[in-house]
Amino acid sequence: MGGLPIENTSTTISLSKLPKDQKSAASTMPDSKPKKKICCACPETKKLRDECIVEHGESACEKWIEAHRKCLRAEGFKV
């Protein structure tokens, strides 16, 4: 699989890049509902995970499965 490295699949935003007023709101805000449906979140990692599973089987693709879960968690999903 010549896909993207796991480290580049995260879509989280660093709080240090937010203006001061948004930093405090983001840090005090409880876990909010995801803004997307789970089927539409993280298309890059989903594609890599699915291709790997089709070609090599689920047991050989743990790193892509975990990368996709990590991305989904960053989007606000509890997986």
Automatic annotation (TrEMBL):
<dbReference type="GO" id="GO:0005507">
    <property type="term" value="F:copper ion binding"/>
</dbReference>
<keyword id="KW-1015">Disulfide bond</keyword>
<feature type="region of interest" description="Disordered">
    <location>
        <begin position="1"/>
        <end position="35"/>
    </location>
</feature>
<dbReference type="InterPro" id="IPR009069">
    <property type="entry name" value="Cys_alpha_HP_mot_SF"/>
</dbReference>
<keyword id="KW-0143">Chaperone</keyword>
<feature type="binding site">
    <location>
        <position position="39"/>
    </location>
    <ligand>
        <name>Cu cation</name>
    </ligand>
</feature>
<protein>
    <recommendedName>
        <fullName>Cytochrome c oxidase copper chaperone</fullName>
    </recommendedName>
</protein>
<keyword id="KW-0496">Mitochondrion</keyword>
<feature type="binding site">
    <location>
        <position position="40"/>
    </location>
    <ligand>
        <name>Cu cation</name>
    </ligand>
</feature>
<dbReference type="GO" id="GO:0016531">
    <property type="term" value="F:copper chaperone activity"/>
</dbReference>
<keyword id="KW-0186">Copper</keyword>
<keyword id="KW-0479">Metal-binding</keyword>
<dbReference type="InterPro" id="IPR007745">
    <property type="entry name" value="Cyt_c_oxidase_Cu-chaperone"/>
</dbReference>
<dbReference type="Pfam" id="PF05051">
    <property type="entry name" value="COX17"/>
</dbReference>
<dbReference type="GO" id="GO:0005758">
    <property type="term" value="C:mitochondrial intermembrane space"/>
</dbReference>
<comment type="similarity">
    <text>Belongs to the COX17 family.</text>
</comment>
